[in-house]
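Teaching soon. Got one?

===
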Amino acid sequence: MNPTLQKLGFDENARVVILHADDIGMCQASVEAYADLLEAGIMSSAATMVPCPWFPAAADFFRAHQTYPRFDVGVHLTLNSEWKNFRWSALSTRDPASGLLDADGYFHSLAAPTHEFANPDAVERELTAQVERALAAGFGVTHMDSHMLALYHPRLLPAYIRVAQKFCLPAFLTRPRTPLTEGMPEEIETLLHEAQARGMALFDHFDALALDQHENRLQEARRALNALPAGLSALVFHPCRDSAEVRVMAPDWQCRVADYELFLNEDFRQMIFDAGVNVIGYRLLRNTMRQGN
């Protein structure tokens, strides 16, 4: 049984899931979507992209609503800037020798060149800068996770774990021998076991709604909920309000708008109830981790 869930009092057959909204602060449409969905009350967690253009607006929203009982927001640690005409760069450096930047001075569009060229020490400095910027902006940071899962690489995962331990934050990490860690060297498995021994939660399962097919979103959500195994799972969405901005920015805008509409759909709320899953947020994991430490 997952030891974190055991600490929280769940039984070995419990299906526990975090319903998580990614990319808050990437654009205006993401901040507006989060404001609406927080009120709807289905979403249990979100994460903000600190280097992105609309992070200041996300911070303003947080400062105005930080006493809201369901406000659970982490840092979506960002090392990539994937859109053609909507870009962002590092907080900590402009030095090409860091390996974090492309020829135009932005983050690399894809994870592969980040994995190949990024200096792990520069990565750790950048991750630290992003968490520190979020804290300085007033965010009560509940966790860390990784944009595009770029940090799930043998060269970068140790820096990610060290930063999580530095700030005593849960980070999205899966158990060894799950699809995200398959093929990684043995020392990564050792790192994950050590992180768990220090009180960090490891997830048993990860899923995200597709960003290449926007139709039948409710049916896809049903598939994802039904597929949740016993243990701790993360189910990820990318909600945005429909707008001229998001349509120009993101080729997958229809999927993002579909995620936003899904969270507002009362049928989805009923589906979660019928699935018999336990919905939690990262705040519970953070508090349990800090109490243990």
